[in-house]
Amino acid sequence: MDQRPAIVLLSGGLDSTTTLAIALDQGYDVHALSFDYGQRHSVELESARRVAKTMGVTKHFVATIDLRMFGGSALTDSITVPHHDRVEELQSAIPVTYVPARNTIFLSFALAWAETLAASDIFIGVNALDYSGYPDCRPEYIKAYEIMANLATKAGVEGKQRLQIHTPLMEMTKSQIITRGASLGVDYRLTHSCYDPDKDGKPCGTCDSCLLRQKGFQEAGLSDPTATNGVL
Amino acid sequence: MDQRPAIVLLSGGLDSTTTLAIALDQGYDVHALSFDYGQRHSVELESARRVAKTMGVTKHFVATIDLRMFGGSALTDSITVPHHDRVEELQSAIPVTYVPARNTIFLSFALAWAETLAASDIFIGVNALDYSGYPDCRPEYIKAYEIMANLATKAGVEGKQRLQIHTPLMEMTKSQIITRGASLGVDYRLTHSCYDPDKDGKPCGTCDSCLLRQKGFQEAGLSDPTATNGVL
After folding, report:
1. Could you tell me if residue B232 is inside a domain?
2. How far is A185 from chain B (nearest CA, A)?
3. B118 touching A (Cβ < 8 Å)
4. Is residue B59 included in any domain, yes or no?
5. A104–B149: do the CB atoms touch at under 8 Å?
6. Rounded average pLDDT over B134-157
7. Predicted interface score ipTM higher than 0.90
8. Does residue B101 sit within a domain?
9. Cα torsion A201, A207, A213, A218: sign
10. Structure pTM?
Protein backbone atom coordinates (compact mmCIF):
# COMPACT_ATOMS: atom_id res chain seq x y z
CA MET A 1 0.00 0.00 0.00
CA ASP A 2 1.22 3.48 -0.80
CA GLN A 3 2.15 5.65 2.13
CA ARG A 4 -0.11 8.62 2.81
CA PRO A 5 1.58 11.96 2.14
CA ALA A 6 1.90 14.46 4.98
CA ILE A 7 3.39 17.93 5.28
CA VAL A 8 5.65 18.49 8.29
CA LEU A 9 6.63 22.03 9.27
CA LEU A 10 10.34 21.85 10.02
CA SER A 11 12.26 24.72 11.59
CA GLY A 12 15.34 22.64 12.32
CA GLY A 13 14.73 22.92 16.05
CA LEU A 14 14.24 20.23 18.63
CA ASP A 15 10.42 20.23 18.59
CA SER A 16 9.88 20.16 14.83
CA THR A 17 12.58 17.51 14.36
CA THR A 18 10.88 15.30 16.95
CA THR A 19 7.55 15.92 15.22
CA LEU A 20 9.09 14.83 11.92
CA ALA A 21 10.37 11.64 13.57
CA ILE A 22 6.88 10.93 14.90
CA ALA A 23 5.31 11.44 11.45
CA LEU A 24 7.86 9.06 9.90
CA ASP A 25 7.23 6.55 12.69
CA GLN A 26 3.50 6.72 11.93
CA GLY A 27 4.28 5.67 8.37
CA TYR A 28 3.67 8.94 6.54
CA ASP A 29 5.38 9.89 3.31
CA VAL A 30 6.90 13.07 4.73
CA HIS A 31 7.17 16.34 2.81
CA ALA A 32 9.06 18.84 4.96
CA LEU A 33 8.51 22.59 4.71
CA SER A 34 10.85 25.24 6.12
CA PHE A 35 10.86 29.02 5.88
CA ASP A 36 13.55 31.57 5.33
CA TYR A 37 11.54 34.44 6.83
CA GLY A 38 14.32 36.85 7.65
CA GLN A 39 14.91 35.29 11.09
CA ARG A 40 18.10 36.41 12.78
CA HIS A 41 18.81 32.80 13.67
CA SER A 42 18.80 31.66 10.03
CA VAL A 43 21.42 29.09 10.99
CA GLU A 44 18.40 26.96 11.92
CA LEU A 45 17.79 26.47 8.18
CA GLU A 46 21.09 24.61 7.96
CA SER A 47 19.78 22.38 10.72
CA ALA A 48 16.52 21.91 8.83
CA ARG A 49 18.41 20.83 5.72
CA ARG A 50 20.58 18.41 7.74
CA VAL A 51 17.52 16.95 9.47
CA ALA A 52 15.59 16.54 6.21
CA LYS A 53 18.54 14.86 4.52
CA THR A 54 19.53 12.62 7.42
CA MET A 55 16.05 11.50 8.40
CA GLY A 56 14.97 10.72 4.85
CA VAL A 57 12.05 12.89 3.81
CA THR A 58 10.57 12.58 0.33
CA LYS A 59 10.86 16.28 -0.44
CA HIS A 60 12.08 19.36 1.43
CA PHE A 61 11.08 22.86 0.38
CA VAL A 62 12.47 26.06 1.91
CA ALA A 63 10.04 28.89 1.16
CA THR A 64 11.41 32.42 1.21
CA ILE A 65 9.07 34.99 2.75
CA ASP A 66 10.25 38.24 4.22
CA LEU A 67 8.44 38.86 7.50
CA ARG A 68 10.95 41.60 8.30
CA MET A 69 8.85 44.02 6.29
CA PHE A 70 6.21 43.91 9.02
CA GLY A 71 8.65 43.83 11.94
CA GLY A 72 7.24 43.60 15.45
CA SER A 73 9.37 40.73 16.79
CA ALA A 74 12.79 40.29 18.33
CA LEU A 75 13.37 37.46 15.85
CA THR A 76 12.90 39.62 12.76
CA ASP A 77 13.37 43.19 13.94
CA SER A 78 15.97 45.25 15.76
CA ILE A 79 14.35 44.43 19.12
CA THR A 80 16.90 42.76 21.44
CA VAL A 81 16.48 39.07 22.22
CA PRO A 82 16.18 38.75 26.02
CA HIS A 83 18.79 36.77 27.93
CA HIS A 84 18.51 35.24 31.41
CA ASP A 85 20.74 33.53 33.91
CA ARG A 86 18.21 30.90 34.89
CA VAL A 87 15.15 29.27 33.33
CA GLU A 88 13.00 30.38 36.28
CA GLU A 89 13.34 33.96 35.06
CA LEU A 90 11.25 33.27 31.95
CA GLN A 91 7.98 35.14 32.12
CA SER A 92 4.53 33.83 31.36
CA ALA A 93 3.52 36.87 29.27
CA ILE A 94 3.82 36.74 25.51
CA PRO A 95 7.55 37.25 24.84
CA VAL A 96 9.10 39.70 22.37
CA THR A 97 10.32 36.73 20.34
CA TYR A 98 6.70 36.11 19.30
CA VAL A 99 6.45 36.70 15.53
CA PRO A 100 3.02 38.07 14.56
CA ALA A 101 0.92 35.47 12.72
CA ARG A 102 3.94 33.28 12.03
CA ASN A 103 2.31 29.91 12.56
CA THR A 104 -0.77 31.09 10.65
CA ILE A 105 1.44 31.94 7.67
CA PHE A 106 3.43 28.70 7.96
CA LEU A 107 0.28 26.56 8.17
CA SER A 108 -1.19 28.41 5.17
CA PHE A 109 1.76 27.47 2.98
CA ALA A 110 1.49 23.90 4.29
CA LEU A 111 -2.19 23.98 3.34
CA ALA A 112 -1.34 25.04 -0.22
CA TRP A 113 1.16 22.21 -0.55
CA ALA A 114 -1.22 19.71 1.05
CA GLU A 115 -3.89 20.59 -1.44
CA THR A 116 -1.65 20.17 -4.48
CA LEU A 117 -0.38 16.83 -3.12
CA ALA A 118 -3.90 15.70 -2.14
CA ALA A 119 -2.52 15.25 1.36
CA SER A 120 -4.91 15.32 4.33
CA ASP A 121 -2.32 15.60 7.07
CA ILE A 122 -0.20 18.50 8.32
CA PHE A 123 2.15 18.15 11.30
CA ILE A 124 3.29 21.09 13.43
CA GLY A 125 5.44 20.85 16.56
CA VAL A 126 3.58 23.37 18.70
CA ASN A 127 3.53 22.86 22.40
CA ALA A 128 1.26 24.44 24.98
CA LEU A 129 2.84 23.13 28.17
CA ASP A 130 6.41 24.12 28.66
CA TYR A 131 6.14 27.39 26.81
CA SER A 132 2.60 28.63 26.53
CA GLY A 133 3.32 32.29 25.83
CA TYR A 134 2.64 32.15 22.09
CA PRO A 135 -1.05 32.53 21.15
CA ASP A 136 -0.59 30.48 17.99
CA CYS A 137 0.63 27.41 19.89
CA ARG A 138 -2.60 26.78 21.80
CA PRO A 139 -5.00 23.90 21.10
CA GLU A 140 -7.98 26.22 20.58
CA TYR A 141 -6.06 28.08 17.88
CA ILE A 142 -5.10 24.85 16.09
CA LYS A 143 -8.69 23.60 16.23
CA ALA A 144 -9.96 26.88 14.72
CA TYR A 145 -7.29 26.68 12.02
CA GLU A 146 -8.39 23.17 11.11
CA ILE A 147 -12.03 24.23 10.75
CA MET A 148 -11.01 27.18 8.57
CA ALA A 149 -8.69 25.01 6.46
CA ASN A 150 -11.46 22.57 5.64
CA LEU A 151 -13.61 25.43 4.36
CA ALA A 152 -10.72 26.97 2.40
CA THR A 153 -9.89 24.13 0.08
CA LYS A 154 -11.29 22.58 -3.04
CA ALA A 155 -11.13 19.09 -1.57
CA GLY A 156 -12.82 20.32 1.59
CA VAL A 157 -15.68 21.81 -0.41
CA GLU A 158 -16.05 18.74 -2.55
CA GLY A 159 -16.06 16.57 0.57
CA LYS A 160 -13.14 14.50 -0.70
CA GLN A 161 -10.63 15.35 1.95
CA ARG A 162 -10.80 15.98 5.67
CA LEU A 163 -7.72 17.96 6.50
CA GLN A 164 -6.20 17.35 9.89
CA ILE A 165 -3.59 19.39 11.76
CA HIS A 166 -1.52 17.02 13.90
CA THR A 167 0.15 18.41 17.03
CA PRO A 168 1.78 15.39 18.66
CA LEU A 169 3.79 17.53 21.11
CA MET A 170 0.91 19.70 22.30
CA GLU A 171 0.62 18.23 25.79
CA MET A 172 4.23 17.16 26.28
CA THR A 173 6.91 18.78 28.43
CA LYS A 174 10.26 19.51 26.83
CA SER A 175 11.80 16.53 28.60
CA GLN A 176 9.00 14.25 27.39
CA ILE A 177 9.60 15.51 23.85
CA ILE A 178 13.32 14.73 24.12
CA THR A 179 12.66 11.31 25.63
CA ARG A 180 10.21 10.49 22.83
CA GLY A 181 12.61 11.71 20.15
CA ALA A 182 15.51 9.78 21.63
CA SER A 183 13.40 6.62 21.64
CA LEU A 184 12.78 7.16 17.93
CA GLY A 185 16.49 7.56 17.30
CA VAL A 186 16.54 11.33 16.72
CA ASP A 187 20.09 12.67 16.64
CA TYR A 188 19.69 16.01 18.41
CA ARG A 189 23.12 17.11 17.23
CA LEU A 190 21.33 17.87 13.96
CA THR A 191 19.03 20.42 15.59
CA HIS A 192 19.36 24.07 16.52
CA SER A 193 17.31 25.91 19.14
CA CYS A 194 19.04 29.22 19.92
CA TYR A 195 17.26 32.49 19.04
CA ASP A 196 20.45 34.53 19.20
CA PRO A 197 23.45 32.53 17.97
CA ASP A 198 26.83 34.16 17.36
CA LYS A 199 28.13 34.67 13.83
CA ASP A 200 29.46 31.12 13.72
CA GLY A 201 26.05 29.73 14.68
CA LYS A 202 27.08 28.88 18.26
CA PRO A 203 24.12 28.90 20.71
CA CYS A 204 24.13 31.75 23.27
CA GLY A 205 23.02 29.49 26.13
CA THR A 206 20.97 32.23 27.79
CA CYS A 207 17.99 32.99 25.53
CA ASP A 208 14.56 31.50 26.36
CA SER A 209 14.98 28.76 23.80
CA CYS A 210 18.46 27.71 24.99
CA LEU A 211 17.33 27.66 28.63
CA LEU A 212 14.27 25.53 27.88
CA ARG A 213 16.41 23.14 25.86
CA GLN A 214 18.90 22.76 28.71
CA LYS A 215 16.11 22.21 31.22
CA GLY A 216 14.53 19.60 28.96
CA PHE A 217 17.71 17.58 28.59
CA GLN A 218 18.40 17.79 32.32
CA GLU A 219 14.92 16.57 33.22
CA ALA A 220 15.13 13.80 30.63
CA GLY A 221 18.39 12.68 32.23
CA LEU A 222 20.22 13.06 28.93
CA SER A 223 23.10 15.25 27.86
CA ASP A 224 22.59 17.69 25.01
CA PRO A 225 24.98 16.59 22.26
CA THR A 226 24.94 20.10 20.74
CA ALA A 227 25.84 21.82 24.00
CA THR A 228 28.73 19.48 24.70
CA ASN A 229 30.05 19.09 21.20
CA GLY A 230 29.36 22.57 19.89
CA VAL A 231 27.58 23.29 16.63
CA LEU A 232 28.15 20.79 13.86
CA MET B 1 -9.34 62.08 15.73
CA ASP B 2 -6.77 59.78 14.20
CA GLN B 3 -8.02 57.53 11.46
CA ARG B 4 -8.15 53.83 12.26
CA PRO B 5 -5.59 51.79 10.31
CA ALA B 6 -6.82 49.00 8.03
CA ILE B 7 -5.10 46.51 5.74
CA VAL B 8 -6.59 46.18 2.24
CA LEU B 9 -5.58 43.27 0.05
CA LEU B 10 -4.96 44.77 -3.38
CA SER B 11 -4.41 42.65 -6.49
CA GLY B 12 -4.78 45.55 -8.88
CA GLY B 13 -8.01 44.11 -10.24
CA LEU B 14 -11.46 45.60 -10.40
CA ASP B 15 -12.77 44.02 -7.18
CA SER B 16 -9.87 44.81 -4.88
CA THR B 17 -9.60 48.36 -6.23
CA THR B 18 -13.29 48.94 -5.50
CA THR B 19 -12.78 47.45 -2.03
CA LEU B 20 -9.92 49.88 -1.45
CA ALA B 21 -12.16 52.79 -2.51
CA ILE B 22 -14.83 51.60 -0.03
CA ALA B 23 -12.28 51.40 2.82
CA LEU B 24 -11.06 54.93 2.04
CA ASP B 25 -14.66 56.14 1.86
CA GLN B 26 -15.28 54.64 5.31
CA GLY B 27 -12.45 56.78 6.65
CA TYR B 28 -9.78 54.15 7.20
CA ASP B 29 -6.07 54.86 7.10
CA VAL B 30 -5.42 52.36 4.31
CA HIS B 31 -2.36 50.11 4.18
CA ALA B 32 -2.44 48.16 0.92
CA LEU B 33 -0.87 44.72 0.54
CA SER B 34 -0.13 43.02 -2.79
CA PHE B 35 1.65 39.78 -3.66
CA ASP B 36 4.13 38.81 -6.29
CA TYR B 37 3.35 35.10 -6.07
CA GLY B 38 4.66 33.94 -9.41
CA GLN B 39 1.36 34.65 -11.16
CA ARG B 40 1.53 34.58 -14.93
CA HIS B 41 -0.46 37.81 -15.03
CA SER B 42 2.12 39.72 -12.98
CA VAL B 43 1.19 42.82 -14.98
CA GLU B 44 -1.56 43.18 -12.35
CA LEU B 45 1.14 44.31 -9.92
CA GLU B 46 1.74 47.36 -12.10
CA SER B 47 -1.97 48.06 -11.75
CA ALA B 48 -1.75 47.59 -7.98
CA ARG B 49 1.09 50.12 -7.80
CA ARG B 50 -0.83 52.60 -9.96
CA VAL B 51 -3.98 52.18 -7.87
CA ALA B 52 -2.10 52.57 -4.56
CA LYS B 53 -0.35 55.69 -5.79
CA THR B 54 -3.35 57.32 -7.45
CA MET B 55 -5.88 56.60 -4.71
CA GLY B 56 -3.63 57.74 -1.91
CA VAL B 57 -2.88 54.90 0.48
CA THR B 58 -0.63 55.43 3.51
CA LYS B 59 1.66 52.52 2.67
CA HIS B 60 1.81 49.87 -0.05
CA PHE B 61 3.78 46.66 0.39
CA VAL B 62 4.33 44.07 -2.31
CA ALA B 63 5.26 40.77 -0.67
CA THR B 64 7.17 38.24 -2.75
CA ILE B 65 6.12 34.64 -2.19
CA ASP B 66 6.65 31.92 -4.71
CA LEU B 67 3.53 29.79 -4.95
CA ARG B 68 4.88 28.23 -8.14
CA MET B 69 6.84 25.77 -6.03
CA PHE B 70 3.57 24.05 -5.12
CA GLY B 71 1.94 24.38 -8.56
CA GLY B 72 -1.59 23.09 -9.01
CA SER B 73 -3.13 26.14 -10.68
CA ALA B 74 -3.39 27.56 -14.18
CA LEU B 75 -2.28 30.90 -12.73
CA THR B 76 1.04 29.62 -11.41
CA ASP B 77 1.71 26.40 -13.29
CA SER B 78 1.96 25.21 -16.87
CA ILE B 79 -1.77 24.39 -16.92
CA THR B 80 -3.51 26.29 -19.74
CA VAL B 81 -5.84 29.15 -18.82
CA PRO B 82 -9.25 28.32 -20.34
CA HIS B 83 -10.76 30.65 -22.93
CA HIS B 84 -14.39 30.97 -23.98
CA ASP B 85 -16.42 32.76 -26.63
CA ARG B 86 -19.24 33.74 -24.31
CA VAL B 87 -19.69 34.27 -20.57
CA GLU B 88 -22.45 31.65 -20.49
CA GLU B 89 -19.80 28.99 -21.08
CA LEU B 90 -18.26 29.53 -17.65
CA GLN B 91 -18.79 26.52 -15.47
CA SER B 92 -19.91 26.41 -11.87
CA ALA B 93 -17.27 23.87 -10.82
CA ILE B 94 -14.05 25.08 -9.22
CA PRO B 95 -11.97 26.36 -12.15
CA VAL B 96 -8.34 25.49 -12.90
CA THR B 97 -7.44 29.10 -12.18
CA TYR B 98 -8.10 28.42 -8.48
CA VAL B 99 -4.79 28.77 -6.61
CA PRO B 100 -4.63 26.40 -3.60
CA ALA B 101 -4.92 28.27 -0.30
CA ARG B 102 -4.16 31.62 -1.93
CA ASN B 103 -6.60 33.74 0.05
CA THR B 104 -5.60 31.94 3.25
CA ILE B 105 -1.98 32.87 2.61
CA PHE B 106 -2.84 36.45 1.65
CA LEU B 107 -5.03 36.95 4.73
CA SER B 108 -2.28 35.50 6.93
CA PHE B 109 0.21 38.11 5.76
CA ALA B 110 -2.46 40.77 6.27
CA LEU B 111 -2.95 39.43 9.79
CA ALA B 112 0.78 39.76 10.52
CA TRP B 113 0.77 43.35 9.32
CA ALA B 114 -2.47 44.14 11.17
CA GLU B 115 -0.95 42.89 14.40
CA THR B 116 2.21 44.97 14.10
CA LEU B 117 0.12 48.06 13.23
CA ALA B 118 -2.40 47.34 15.99
CA ALA B 119 -5.04 47.40 13.26
CA SER B 120 -8.34 45.59 13.82
CA ASP B 121 -9.59 45.71 10.25
CA ILE B 122 -8.68 43.75 7.12
CA PHE B 123 -10.50 44.25 3.81
CA ILE B 124 -10.65 41.63 1.07
CA GLY B 125 -12.59 41.93 -2.18
CA VAL B 126 -13.99 38.41 -2.31
CA ASN B 127 -17.32 37.86 -3.90
CA ALA B 128 -19.63 34.88 -3.66
CA LEU B 129 -22.26 35.86 -6.19
CA ASP B 130 -20.99 36.36 -9.68
CA TYR B 131 -18.19 33.87 -9.37
CA SER B 132 -18.69 31.39 -6.62
CA GLY B 133 -16.35 28.67 -7.81
CA TYR B 134 -13.50 29.47 -5.40
CA PRO B 135 -13.89 27.84 -1.96
CA ASP B 136 -11.93 30.64 -0.29
CA CYS B 137 -14.36 33.33 -1.45
CA ARG B 138 -17.37 32.06 0.49
CA PRO B 139 -18.83 33.76 3.58
CA GLU B 140 -18.49 30.62 5.74
CA TYR B 141 -14.79 30.50 4.95
CA ILE B 142 -14.28 34.18 5.84
CA LYS B 143 -16.19 33.73 9.10
CA ALA B 144 -14.02 30.75 10.06
CA TYR B 145 -10.89 32.72 9.18
CA GLU B 146 -11.98 35.56 11.44
CA ILE B 147 -12.53 33.21 14.39
CA MET B 148 -9.12 31.63 13.84
CA ALA B 149 -7.42 35.02 13.47
CA ASN B 150 -8.75 36.21 16.81
CA LEU B 151 -7.26 33.14 18.48
CA ALA B 152 -3.95 33.50 16.62
CA THR B 153 -2.88 36.92 17.77
CA LYS B 154 -1.41 38.50 20.85
CA ALA B 155 -4.03 41.24 20.90
CA GLY B 156 -6.78 38.64 20.47
CA VAL B 157 -5.50 36.65 23.44
CA GLU B 158 -5.12 39.74 25.59
CA GLY B 159 -8.64 40.82 24.64
CA LYS B 160 -7.40 44.17 23.36
CA GLN B 161 -8.37 43.78 19.76
CA ARG B 162 -11.30 42.23 17.93
CA LEU B 163 -10.05 41.57 14.45
CA GLN B 164 -12.60 41.87 11.68
CA ILE B 165 -12.40 40.68 8.07
CA HIS B 166 -14.45 43.05 5.91
CA THR B 167 -15.89 41.72 2.66
CA PRO B 168 -17.92 44.62 1.27
CA LEU B 169 -18.37 42.96 -2.13
CA MET B 170 -19.48 39.56 -0.86
CA GLU B 171 -23.11 39.83 -1.93
CA MET B 172 -22.70 42.15 -4.92
CA THR B 173 -22.88 41.28 -8.61
CA LYS B 174 -20.03 42.45 -10.83
CA SER B 175 -22.22 45.25 -12.22
CA GLN B 176 -23.14 46.39 -8.69
CA ILE B 177 -19.43 46.46 -7.81
CA ILE B 178 -18.66 48.59 -10.86
CA THR B 179 -21.59 50.92 -10.15
CA ARG B 180 -20.46 51.34 -6.55
CA GLY B 181 -16.84 51.96 -7.55
CA ALA B 182 -17.87 54.47 -10.21
CA SER B 183 -19.94 56.35 -7.62
CA LEU B 184 -16.81 56.58 -5.46
CA GLY B 185 -14.81 57.93 -8.37
CA VAL B 186 -12.74 54.81 -9.11
CA ASP B 187 -10.88 55.13 -12.39
CA TYR B 188 -11.10 51.60 -13.76
CA ARG B 189 -8.44 52.38 -16.34
CA LEU B 190 -6.02 51.79 -13.45
CA THR B 191 -7.14 48.20 -12.97
CA HIS B 192 -6.28 44.92 -14.64
CA SER B 193 -8.44 41.79 -14.66
CA CYS B 194 -7.10 39.40 -17.33
CA TYR B 195 -5.64 36.05 -16.25
CA ASP B 196 -3.78 35.54 -19.50
CA PRO B 197 -2.51 38.83 -20.92
CA ASP B 198 -0.13 38.97 -23.87
CA LYS B 199 3.50 39.98 -23.40
CA ASP B 200 2.60 43.66 -23.56
CA GLY B 201 0.01 43.19 -20.80
CA LYS B 202 -2.97 43.44 -23.15
CA PRO B 203 -6.07 41.56 -21.88
CA CYS B 204 -7.02 38.43 -23.85
CA GLY B 205 -10.76 39.21 -23.72
CA THR B 206 -11.76 35.55 -23.51
CA CYS B 207 -10.61 34.22 -20.11
CA ASP B 208 -13.14 33.90 -17.26
CA SER B 209 -11.99 37.12 -15.68
CA CYS B 210 -12.18 39.17 -18.89
CA LEU B 211 -15.64 37.81 -19.71
CA LEU B 212 -17.00 38.61 -16.24
CA ARG B 213 -15.54 42.09 -16.43
CA GLN B 214 -17.19 42.72 -19.80
CA LYS B 215 -20.53 41.41 -18.53
CA GLY B 216 -20.27 43.61 -15.45
CA PHE B 217 -19.66 46.79 -17.42
CA GLN B 218 -22.46 45.92 -19.86
CA GLU B 219 -24.96 45.31 -17.08
CA ALA B 220 -23.85 48.48 -15.28
CA GLY B 221 -24.49 50.41 -18.49
CA LEU B 222 -20.94 51.70 -18.53
CA SER B 223 -18.11 51.25 -20.97
CA ASP B 224 -14.88 49.64 -19.80
CA PRO B 225 -12.17 52.28 -20.17
CA THR B 226 -9.47 49.61 -20.30
CA ALA B 227 -11.15 47.67 -23.08
CA THR B 228 -11.60 50.75 -25.23
CA ASN B 229 -8.35 52.51 -24.48
CA GLY B 230 -6.06 49.53 -24.16
CA VAL B 231 -3.70 48.95 -21.29
CA LEU B 232 -2.21 52.09 -19.78
Report:
1. no
2. 31
3. no
4. yes
5. yes
6. 88
7. no
8. yes
9. positive
10. 0.88
